[in-house]
Amino acid sequence: MGKDVIIACDFASAEKTFEFLDKFTNTKPFVKIGMELFYAEGPSIVKEIKARGHKIFLDLKLHDIPNTVKKSMAVLSNLDVDMTNLHAAGTISMMEAALQGLTREDGTRPLLIAVTQLTSTDQERMENDLLIKEPIDKVVMHYASNAAKAGLDGVVCSPLEAGKVHDTCGKNFLTVTPGVRFADGDIGDQKRVMTPAEAKKIGSDYIVVGRPITAAEDPVAAYERCVREFVG
Ligand code: C5P
User: Fold this and answer.
1) Across-strand partners of 5?
2) Which of 5, 83, 161, 208 is the pocket-test mutation for ligand 1 (most atoms within 8 Å of CB)?
3) What residues contact 18, with CB distance under 8 A and at least 6 apart?
4) The domain spanning residue 17 has which CATH number?
């Protein structure tokens, strides 16, 4: 898989999701399904979107004991998603177990991406709530290298961290980056943002874009603009 734009389908129902996806008559964008939609609609939403011909990143961020994660990943793999994720904080053993669960009998599997520290966790909360006293950048890179050691394919990170992740974990280790905005767009609640063109320059492999596309007056045009800027 090469560079691609993933649309974050942060809708609360299947109806709203299909109303949105129906606008795309000529292309089948890669879509991200998160917890809200998955918990509202269940596995059928994944099967239906897949049957329409889209690639799917199932963003459920698993974090549990290795055996539970392994078995749950086997279920997600059977849903035929293309990419899924977990928390690197679950340890290297949990990530290895996840990969085993995800691998199908024929040896194929969806891409597996780790979340390092959530962007909602800052230095102060990490020190006070989690008792992790190291600088957050160091923690993020350490978690990324743990993910690489476990054999995962990449991490979710800010586009600002993508270059450093590639330096630490190798060029082929994937960076999946949210926090993307058009130069002339609203930044909303995102704090540190980049344009699709900047994300391309810094080496992001996939950008995850929600509201700049889903809330646009013409979502198809906004998606196509993203692809033009990011993929070229
Ligand atoms: O609408 P927007 O483009 O901000 O959507 C970004 C998507 O990426 C959302 O689904 C959000 O939950 C997700 N995300 C993020 N920041 C992270 C991890 C995931 O914005 N650090």
Assistant:
1) 207
2) 208
3) 48
4) 3.20.20.70
- Nearest ligand 1 atom to alpha carbon 188: 4
3-class DSSP assignment, residue 113: strand
Contacts of 122 (CB under 8 A, 6+ apart): 136
| Number of helical H runs and strand E runs in the chain | 11, 8
pTM, two decimal places: 0.96
Residue with CA at minimum distance from ligand 1 atom 8:
178
Which residues approach ligand 1 with their CB closer than 6 A? Answer: 8, 10, 34, 118-119, 156, 178-179, 190, 208-212
pLDDT tens per residue across all 232 residues of the chain: 579 999 999 999 999 999 999 999 999 999 999 999 999 999 999 999 999 999 999 999 999 999 999 999 999 999 999 999 999 999 999 999 999 999 999 999 999 999 998 888 899 999 999 999 999 999 999 999 999 999 999 999 988 899 999 999 999 999 999 999 999 988 888 777 899 999 999 999 999 999 999 999 999 999 999 999 999 8
* Owning domain of residue 181: 4-230
Q: Is residue 3 annotated as a catalytic residue, yes or no?
A: no
Catalytic position from the list 3, 50, 61, 164: 61
Q: Write the residue with the smallest CA distance to atom 3 of ligand 1.
A: 210
- Counted domains in the chain: 1
